[in-house]
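Reopening this one. Same input as before:
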Amino acid sequence: MTVPTELRAVTLPVFEPVAEQSSDSIGALLIADGHMTVDQVEQVLQEQQRNGGRFGEIACRLGFVAQSTVDSALALQFGYPTALSKSRLPARLVTALNPALPFAESIRALRSQLMMRWFDGTPGRTALAITSVDRGDGKSFISANLAVAFSQLAESTLLIDADMRNPVLHETFGLENRMGLSALLSGRAGLDEIKTVAGLPKLSLLPSGALPPNPQELLGRGVFRNLLNHLSSHFNVILLDTPSAQAASDAQVVAQRAGAALLVARKDVTRGREMAQLSATLSNSGVQVLGATLNAY
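Same output, byte for byte:
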């Protein structure tokens, strides 16, 4: 069986407009986030009154802010959440910090394809497993940025770190990992371990929690299936970052529970034969393999 073709953007579906827009001016947003002082804003407004022009263009010309900061403030005004303050989120969350970069646009194209192929409102199509052949292929990097992209559509999004062998998502988002999925599945914690990501109000994260001695057994229990069913009634999109296929067979178990999987390959590293084997293994276990995406970062 061949690997499904790489996901490409063909057409954009119609999205509902985001209702939660900011009524603050760009100047007020930049002051609130510490990028400009009140005096600097006044200088820009005076220049704007004398000679006209846009606030952001003048602020950049005077050297008060960078264009990327203005772009983030504009996005916030139009209800498109980004991390205006770079201190809030790590640099790996490119889609939040630099939404104008080509990588962020590629993630949005991937999001569009997934919305047409899976997240189309059909009952039972809420969860998606994201996996790869080997560690280091970038599945967690793609998972995190894809989750940000879905949340920017005002879709209630949950990212679950289902890699209870080598978890990294808590580090990506700067959160603790004392309790999480492993504690939920073993009955030692509740849903309050799901944390909303600061600066991205539509995005929540459930970290892996403490590393258990039996991750595959925990994932194979009915409680995991029941947990996903329950969460599906509270979130529009659930993304599950799994261990790599070569590290463990956990990925197959998680994908079966989710119903569908996205494969991540690393440019110039992942072999086509290995991707084909992974795709066939998942398909033969009843998982709908939506496609593969190439990570060049």
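So the earlier flakiness isn't reproducible anymore. For the record, Confidence is low (pLDDT under 50) at residues 1-23.
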